[in-house]
Specification:
Blueprint: H1 8-13, H2 47-54, E1 58-61, H3 69-79, E2 83-87, H4 96-109, E3 112-114
Parallel strand pairs: 1-2, 2-3
Helix pairs in contact: 3-4
Amino acid sequence: MGAALDPELDVGAGTPFDDLVDRHLYKGQFGDDYSGFSAVDQDGTDLPTLLKRSGVDQIDVCGFAEDGCVAATVRDGLAGGYRVRLLADLSGASSPSNKDRAESELAVAGAEIRLANVAGP
């Protein structure tokens, strides 16, 4: 189901990536799903349901398209009542100015913009 993970993830993590992941989620299979909150697991359970079942009330978000999918996930997390931290140093955008704009807009919306190296509890 979906695309395979790049084997370089194992190299970068120093261990098989699958050993670090509790559950694989899939999105974008049936349309343009920008938000991670549209993702489902192999049983079809969506991310909001999984988070609720696990008692999660805060999430950290990072990714390649801070001005696209990452922003959509942050916004949906905030709308769902989660405390959301955007890990800016682990995220990119289509341009430096778009990264700055996205971070500013998400901060105004209520997200905490952090660096991964200080993203403790």
